[in-house]
Amino acid sequence: MPQKPIFLLQNNYFDQIGRLIQPCLDFCNKHDHQFIDRSLTETFDPEKIGVDWNAVPGVVIYGSVGWVKRCADSALAPWTFYDRHRFAATSWAPAFGKNALNGNGEVQTVSEITRRLERGERVHIRPNRDDKAFNGAVYDIASWENMLKLRQERHQTLPDSQLECWASPVKEIEAEYRCWFIDNVLINVSMYRNKGELCLKRETSHEVLKAATDLAAQHLPISTIVMDIAKTQDGYKVVEFNPINSSGWYAAATETILSRWCEAIMMKANTI
Hints:
The protein is an alpha+beta fold and 272 residues long. The protein is 30% helix and 26% strand. The chain has helices spanning 17-31, 65-72, 89-96, 110-118, 141-153, 206-218, 254-269; strands at 6-10, 35-38, 59-62, 106-109, 123-127, 137-139, 164-168, 175-182, 185-194, 197-202, 225-232, 235-242. The chain has a five-stranded antiparallel β-sheet. Strands 4-7-5-6 form a four-stranded antiparallel β-sheet. The two termini are 17 Å apart.
């Protein structure tokens, strides 16, 4: 029986497989963790891949949100840090009030939002519960149509006209950061955008770390999670939350995050 958590990795994570999966593979090879890689297909069933999950000391699951959802509906549910209702903006934004970047938004359908864009508006839009129906961002009609075209080219489903989204006014952002929490403790922070441009840099400044910790003290939907925050002229604000099982690494210290993740999983395994 393995003495360490097994990694269950999605090996067809679109064209981002190297950037997203490779840190996990490197960690497994360096620390002698067993890993299993599978493709996410319509018939994929994590309970039918020849592993007795009750006999292993936990599982590190990493892949797309679809991958995580599939695992959440199986015996691997304890190792998927995901709850679609808790991740919905309508669930967490009220807890932050003015400290949520898009806290003054409203729920609208794709059809309603499309009409706003066609009138010339620019709107920050993200799915409310169906996390990856499309990527949350600021859209005008041109960028919205480009997003739909790209999804078609990648053979991805298009958002349904009645899909509920969180639509909010566009805010000015100075910089954006991704923050990893494990068991409510801040583990690592990476800048990923500065003045609107991609900027990958491991963040160690006291100001940013304190802002992330203070915001998390207000509310975390679940204890092990990724929180994106933004620096604005009015202080630091929460942008969104994402599952740790499917969040991109940017410039994070992946060794540190995966080590702490494995430790937390082994501790949890001892209580199940």
